[in-house]
Amino acid sequence: MTRLSFYLKRLGIIVAILLLPENATALSVSKRQQQLQPQFGTKTTTTRSTVPPLFVSTTPKSFYETLSSSNDHVSIAQRLNVKPGMMDFSPRFWKFAWRMHGRLLPLLHIWDKARTADLDNCLKVLWCKALVGLDWNSPAYDGGLAYDMLPSLTRWLVKLPERVFPRLVHFIIELRTVYLDRALQEEMQHAKDLRSVSNVTQQQQNHTDSCFSRIRLVTLGAGYDTRSVKFLNDDGGCQIDEAWELDMQTVIASKSIMLERLRTRRPNAKIPKLVGQDLTDFVGTKRTNQKNGIPLFW
């Protein structure tokens, strides 16, 4: 009974947060707090612990270079065709929302076989991606791919009306998702163009093998990211041939269960190859890979 009361209290907290109106009055922001507003496009920012910055791309395209150096979230959203978020809240409120999501994870994953002993921030991102992935009007729409990785008991929450969810953290995740997806799509299209040219050249020279025979996507520290699955099953011209994901063994074990859950719901779905590695232990990783016949570098 005590355990039930504990979860009921948490459920009351999530209902209170979800019912926060989208046009709620922002908390007062002092001059010091205004200096701590989220800075997009910089790896090091004073609000790194509260608001995730937009990932800095190394793509040589001027569009992405300009975008990654911009601090104006409104212009970034417009250029990515993403609905603007609610950025007027103080860093304290951002931190509160992020922490509350973390405290709700045990409830969201109650009786979930994929639940790990230490639920980390990667799971928060998965829930945010599931939320934006169901939005038909978002360029991050994934047809419910991330949604199908979530536990059946609680995933219905992300299908609540859009007005229930203030555009806070999931807005940042949406920006980063669209930004990285488009950058990768350009690179993959470039690789496919090179493969086409290489194939023609090889045929002219009577060679059977092409140096651009396959496109492989390797994600280090993948967490619960869905990008590999999305590109493996993409029918829009950006499909890749192979995908590998590396992360800690506990994360890989948890994600394996989620991907099997996805396959149960989507029998024809292709899934990436998962490798459990401690990327901070180079010597140990090299020894393990040699033992299992896995290449250290791709």
Can you walk me through this structure?
The protein is mainly alpha-helical. 46% of the residues lie in helices and 5% in strands. It has 10 helices and 3 strands; from the N terminus they run H-H-H-H-H-H-H-E-H-E-H-E-H. The chain has a 3-stranded parallel β-sheet. The radius of gyration is 21 Å and the shape is globular. Mean pLDDT is 75; it is low at 11-62.
Core attributes:
10 helices; 298 residues; transferase; mainly alpha; single chain
Runs in which pLDDT lies below 50 for 5 or more consecutive residues are 11-62
Mean of the pLDDT scores?
A: 75
Shape: globular
Number of strands: 3
- Coarse structural class: mainly alpha
Distance between the ends = 52 Å
Identify the strand order in the major beta sheet.
1-2-3
For the biggest sheet, the summary is: 3 strands, parallel
Estimate percent helicity. 40-55%
Keywords: Methyltransferase, Signal, Transferase
GO molecular function: methyltransferase activity
Protein name: Leucine carboxyl methyltransferase
Organism: Nitzschia inconspicua
